């Protein structure tokens, strides 16, 4: 069966349509969803197809997330669109103190089937308030699942899985990837949360990436291959819970690891991955694992500054060379 | 009907509105030529709110601004060259290219910066008010925000606190009836934003945001109250943006605004209206109008030239203005 | 006035010498010019004469000690004279040479643990395969031993294993210390074999013509110069004359250059009981066969008596080694550094050879040329060897 090629936006709309069709408890809450179909067109067609289940709200992030949470605790399965990931800051209490902790804090009396969905990422000169990658904040809140897919197929499979998950899921999608196209299976296609994917096999170095970082890793792997370094690329897909088994199998084989993400370096999720590799795979390492990430500054507006701050394919290649001593 | 304010001020306000309009149009042009990156949120149509309010302020008064804030910056006395340079991402911009259109600040001119987070400026304005009170000066804070922000928690917390402590803040709502694509009636639980002031025990006034003199009058009163230590005021300036939410808004907002509505508001252009009034009152004539137009044209051209000729920041500037 | 005796510099490249034997004891009277001690250098055992007269008051270094050139080794003074402090002794006219300081020399008996940097996987692999990390050279940053280094060691070990197994060495019945001339030979031959890429070319040579020449010349040489003529003398002459036509074979490498040498000084390997020694016949191309014979007889005798000087053994540009008299048919000699090549000659044997389709019995000998591939290639060396063979098979060419 030939796979059709569609964009991430289309994959999202498809996943949502399928889930809303399948389960009437699923609804979407957020700003500018109906008239615009979402600011990236990712909800196009849904308000018409599911009247009353795609709801426009005022600009009230705190209440939107809080209300979504309340609905999730009482039988519904909402998806909250944060508009831009940067705005999660306006609802931190709702996400971290409420949604993340309720199941545990109340002794398991309730499920929290809430999906908080947010476009993130830089590279569009959107400046400091509209360019962040904040996934590491949420991996640090026990009780939250964190998903960062990169390719359209993963977006569809993981979004469907997230909606069906009974735990709160924070789901990031890089703004630049909305238009990106890729093969997407039709129909019921689910990717379990907590499962990474080896998307390129290699024996010399393991490149661990997610989101926009995945594409840099793949490009870097092509370049490295030309100089005889075979990189294995793993798309992490879910950060929490992390598929460490897949990482371990790979690093045991290659003895070298590089973690790549667009979020800034210090305290980024790469630090967690490297810490675990050092602790659990120490004896298999031929070199210290490295991280490739953005510089630790708020995202500047001016294009040359933004370019300088963000990591590039060349940085990944250089890191891979360092750990392979070539 | 005579003007209640002097001619010189009127002409200044007229020129300022023209300048804002010309600046925004030029910015849109540069954006379409891919010279301005990211996005801009033009305030075309809302010039009267900016100029009317800021004309009631002193240079040492503070201002807190929004992503749609070019007009407020200009009305507060910003250097257009540095503004244009900032939009172009050059190192000579107000923020050395690091902020861009949505984040212009001019601390020397009392502009405490524009925010990309809706409603985030209000608590900051409250803080500035606290500082004024603490220092015992008679400065005031003009806090700009849109109708959408009145549904943010920060709006309510800020009004409550400013009222409680009688802070010298003028809360100016640039009510253009839409929060991106969401119309007022679908977002606000009351029919008039001005009525929200009641909940906090402060005066709330609805103003025709297309009439610069009306805005100026109310702003002046609010500023006087604040300077006299009588606390905050909520000004609900009803206006309209003639452009879309941002430069990427299809049909200039046609997906959520009807053509009739847009046309109706276009006829109420604040610049056109004020010009006609000034002509009526014989404050303006063809000659002065042309002189002003040319001056505005030159100032914009100069700003563009300065911005385009300025250098981009060098990469090492990316790691400046931060501790490590 | 006290005189400090220093380790003398006896050759251009000498940096240190071994005190082989003191010929005088502390308290003995010595005269200036009298042999004072024997010093072993790279090349030979040297008798050093006392630089002053007086009493050998103090010997500073004992037999067997290796002392750097210009370092004090003894003090000669008059009876009762106050001796200078050893530390302040600085031989005059010697420029202090900065010798590279080896990493912290541990005091006797104390071991400074050397920190080895190893990547975890390398350490694990080495542990599992029983490889001593100390024997590995780390190619990672800061000398870190990495996986590639362990893999390389494993490969080397595997290659070793494939070689025919050697019976486990049993306990030795006697231990002979590597010292003196043996030590020097061991070091120089190791250096030569390790650093010089040897290749070997062999020719079986008809010796009849040369033998006939020797027969003819023997009596005359005896009569004229009272010198006994040997085949080796003729070989030296032949080789020296051919070297003049093949300057590359009479060269040596200095740094990044091949230096063609003007003098043709042929060394002849002589086996002594204590070891191999190679006295040199200088300007062998310019000497007559009788002069060569005379030199070689003299050198051989002095060698047997241990009376060779540095001049006798220095400056060689080519070496000839004749093992025929020891019954060896054919052998590949190790080049005597810094020379470019060495010719090894085996014994002459009557053998059937084919000449014009008929079998004849001729005296044949194997000549094997070892050459330095950095300086010369197979073709060049072959041309040289062929010319040597032609000259030996046609000795009249030596008249040219």
Question: Can you walk through the features of this model?
Answer:
The complex is a heterotrimer of chains A (326), B (324) and C (400). Chain A is 37% helix and 20% strand. Chain A is built from eleven helices and 14 strands. Chain A is globular and about 60 Å long. Chain A has two domains: 5-183, Rossmann fold (3-Layer(aba) Sandwich); 197-323, Rossmann fold. Chain A has helices at 8-22, 46-49, 61-73, 92-105, 135-139, 152-164, 212-225, 244-254, 269-280, 303-309, 313-323; strands spanning 4-7, 26-30, 54-56, 77-81, 115-120, 145-147, 169-174, 181-184, 197-200, 205-209, 231-235, 238-240, 257-264, 290-294. Chain A is of the alpha/beta class and 326 residues long. Chain B is globular. With 324 residues, chain B is an alpha/beta fold. In chain B, the strands form two sheets. Chain B has a six-stranded parallel β-sheet, with helices on both faces. Chain B has a two-stranded antiparallel sheet with strand order 5-6. With 400 residues, chain C is of the alpha+beta class. In chain C, strands 9, 12, 15, 16, 17, 18 and 19 form a seven-stranded mixed β-sheet that branches. Chain C has a four-stranded antiparallel β-sheet with strand order 1-8-6-3, with no helix packed on it. A four-stranded antiparallel β-sheet of chain C has the order 5-4-2-7, with no helix packed on it. In chain C, a hairpin with a 4-residue loop joins strand 4 (35-40) and strand 5 (45-49). In chain C, helix 1 (120-129) runs parallel beside helix 2, helix 5 (231-245) packs across helix 6 (289-304) and helix 5 (231-245) crosses helix 8. Residues 88-107 of chain C have low confidence and may be disordered.
């Amino acid at each position: 069966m030939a796979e059709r090629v569609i964009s991430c936006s289309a994959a999202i709309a498809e996943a949502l349509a399928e889930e809303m069709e399948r389960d009437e408890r699923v609804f979407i809450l957020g700003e500018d969803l109906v008239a615009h179909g979402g600011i990236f067109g990712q909800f196009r067609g849904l308000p018409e197809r599911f009247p009353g289940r795609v709801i426009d709200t005022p600009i009230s992030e705190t209440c939107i997330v809080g209300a979504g949470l309340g609905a999730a605790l009482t039988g519904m399965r909402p998806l909250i669109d944060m508009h831009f990931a940067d705005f999660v800051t306006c609802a931190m209490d709702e996400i971290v103190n409420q949604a993340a902790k309720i199941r545990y804090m109340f002794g398991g009396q309730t499920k929290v089937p809430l999906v908080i969905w947010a476009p993130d990422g830089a590279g569009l000169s959107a400046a400091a308030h509209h360019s962040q990658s904040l996934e590491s904040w949420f991996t640090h809140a026990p009780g939250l699942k964190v998903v960062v897919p990169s390719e359209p197929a993963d977006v569809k499979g993981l979004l469907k899985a997230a909606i069906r998950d009974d735990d709160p899921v924070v789901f990031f999608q890089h703004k630049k990837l909305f238009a990106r196209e890729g093969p997407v299976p039709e129909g019921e296609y689910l990717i379990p949360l907590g499962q990474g994917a080896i998307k390129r096999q290699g024996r010399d170095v393991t490149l661990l990436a997610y989101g926009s970082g995945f594409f840099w890793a793949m490009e870097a792997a092509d370049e490295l291959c030309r100089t005889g370094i075979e990189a294995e690329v793993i798309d992490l897909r879910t950060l929490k819970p992390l598929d460490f088994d897949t990482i371990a199998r790979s690093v045991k084989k290659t003895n070298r690891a590089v973690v790549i993400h667009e979020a800034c370096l210090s305290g980024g999720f790469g630090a967690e991955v490297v810490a675990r590799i050092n602790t659990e795979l120490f004896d298999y390492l031929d070199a210290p694992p490295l991280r490739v990430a953005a510089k630790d500054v708020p995202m500047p507006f001016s294009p040359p500054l933004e370019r300088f701050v963000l990591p590039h394919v060349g940085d990944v290649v250089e890191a891979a060379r360092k750990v392979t001593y070539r | 009907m005579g003007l209640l304010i002097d001619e010189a001020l009127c002409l200044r306000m007229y020129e300022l509105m023209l300048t804002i309009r010309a600046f925004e149009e030029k910015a849109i042009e540069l954006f379409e030529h891919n010279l301005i990156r990211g996005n801009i949120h033009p305030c075309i149509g809302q010039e009267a709110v900016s100029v009317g309010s800021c004309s009631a302020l002193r240079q040492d008064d503070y201002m807190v601004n929004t992503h749609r804030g070019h007009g407020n910056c200009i009305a507060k006395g910003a250097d257009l060259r540095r503004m244009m340079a900032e939009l172009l991402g050059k190192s000579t911009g107000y923020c050395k290219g690091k902020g861009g259109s949505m984040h212009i600040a001019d601390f020397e001119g009392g502009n405490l910066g524009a925010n990309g987070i809706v409603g985030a400026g209000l608590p900051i304005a409250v803080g500035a008010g606290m500082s004024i009170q603490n220092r015992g000066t008679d400065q005031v804070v003009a806090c700009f925000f849109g109708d959408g922000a009145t549904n943010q928690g920060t709006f309510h917390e800020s009004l409550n606190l400013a009222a409680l402590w009688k802070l010298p803040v003028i809360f100016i709502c640039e009510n253009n009836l839409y929060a991106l694509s969401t119309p007022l009636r679908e977002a606000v639980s009351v029919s008039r934003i001005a009525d929200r002031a009641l909940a906090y025990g402060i005066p709330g006034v609805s103003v025709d945001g297309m009439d610069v003199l009306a805005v100026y009058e109310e702003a002046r009163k609010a500023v006087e109250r604040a300077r006299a230590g009588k606390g905050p005021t909520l000004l609900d300036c009803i206006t309209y943006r003639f452009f879309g939410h941002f430069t990427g808004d299809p049909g200039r907002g046609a997906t959520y605004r009807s053509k009739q509505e847009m046309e109706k508001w276009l006829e109420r252009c604040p610049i056109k209206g004020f010009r006609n009034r000034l002509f009526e009152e014989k404050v303006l004539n063809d000659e002065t109008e042309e002189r002003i137009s040319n001056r505005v044209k030159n100032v914009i051209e100069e700003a563009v030239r300065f911005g385009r000729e300025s250098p981009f920041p060098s990469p090492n500037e990316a790691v400046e203005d931060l501790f490590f | 006035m006290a005189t400090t005796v220093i380790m003398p510099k006896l050759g251009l490249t000498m940096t240190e010498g071994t005190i082989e034997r003191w010929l005088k004891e502390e308290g003995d009277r010595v005269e200036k010019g009298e042999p004072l001690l024997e010093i072993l250098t790279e090349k030979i055992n040297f008798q050093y004469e006392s630089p002053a007269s007086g009493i050998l008051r103090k010997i500073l270094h004992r037999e067997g000690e290796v002392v750097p050139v210009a370092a004090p080794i003894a003090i000669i003074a008059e009876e009762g004279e106050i001796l200078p402090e050893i530390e302040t002794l600085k031989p005059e006219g010697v420029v202090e040479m900065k010798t590279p300081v080896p990493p912290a020399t541990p005091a006797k008996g104390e071991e400074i643990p050397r920190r080895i940097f190893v990547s975890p996987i390398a350490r694990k692999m080495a542990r599992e395969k029983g490889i001593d990390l100390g024997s590995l050279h780390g190619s990672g940053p800061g000398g870190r031993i990495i996986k590639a280094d362990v893999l390389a060691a494993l490969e080397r070990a595997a290659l070793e294993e494939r070689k025919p197994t050697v019976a486990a060495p049993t306990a030795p019945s006697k231990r002979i210390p590597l010292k003196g001339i043996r030590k020097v030979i061991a070091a120089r031959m190791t250096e030569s074999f390790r650093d010089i890429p040897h290749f070997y070319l062999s020719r079986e040579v008809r010796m009849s013509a040369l033998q006939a020449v020797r027969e003819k010349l023997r009596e005359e040489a005896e009569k004229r110069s009272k010198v006994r003529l040997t085949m080796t003398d003729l070989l030296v002459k032949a080789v020296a004359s051919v070297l003049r036509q093949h300057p590359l074979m009479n060269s040596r490498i200095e740094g990044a250059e091949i230096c063609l040498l003007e003098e043709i000084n042929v060394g002849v390997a002589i086996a002594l009981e204590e070891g191999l020694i190679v006295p040199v016949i200088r300007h062998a191309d310019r000497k007559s066969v009788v002069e060569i014979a005379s030199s070689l007889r003299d050198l051989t005798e002095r060698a047997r008596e241990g009376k060779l000087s540095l001049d006798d053994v220095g400056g060689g540009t080519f070496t000839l080694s004749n093992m025929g008299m020891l019954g060896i048919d054919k052998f590949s000699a190790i080049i005597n550094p810094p020379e470019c090549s060495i010719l090894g000659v085996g014994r002459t044997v009557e053998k059937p050879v084919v000449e014009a389709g008929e079998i004849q019995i001729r005296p044949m000998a194997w000549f094997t040329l070892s050459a330095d591939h950095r300086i010369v290639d197979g073709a060049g060396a072959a041309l040289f060897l062929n010319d040597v063979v032609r000259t030996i098979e046609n000795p009249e060419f030596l008249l040219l």
